[in-house]
Amino acid sequence: MLSRRTFLTGAAAAASTFIIPRAAEAAWQLPELYRAQIVSVRSDYGLRPGEIHIVQRDFFLYYILPGDRAVRYGIAVGEDGRQFRGSAYVGRKVEWPSWRPTANMIAREPEKYAQYAAGMPGGPANPLGARALYLYRNGRDTLYRIHGTPEPWSIGHAVSSGCIRMVNSHAADLYKRAPIGTRVFTSRS
User: What's the CATH code, domain 21-187?
Assistant: First the structure.
């Protein structure tokens, strides 16, 4: 028979699996500029509701809404993400995705990444965070991702690894809004 202490300890451990992303975000205050907010967008730019626009230089991702509005999220842009240009579409979405470092990441920092060469299961410590949107072109995975991060302090910065990072709660919100097939555009300015 389970004691009350054993039950509460187990329940707390199980609950922490779902609380850690928000707790990590709460422990560090995201600057107001990078918090998710509804903003006006210019209709003369040809933005259509349901599209994602990423402005790397400014560290923002916009999910376009009807009525010349958008949800603007702060992002971090990884070295890999800085290479992504043009358009793609969301070809796959995963909750709590697994992750594997690239061969270049392992070669560059083997002490940090070699241990994950076979992959890392999804969870709060996983570099892809709570949600991932996989970007495709012409039916093929581009290997670029829009994903959450267990490192919310990286938002608003260029970072060494990764694609387009978002605070986990923002990644979860975008995941709900953007269905498979959502068009994604990126630019430096």
Answer: 2.40.440.10
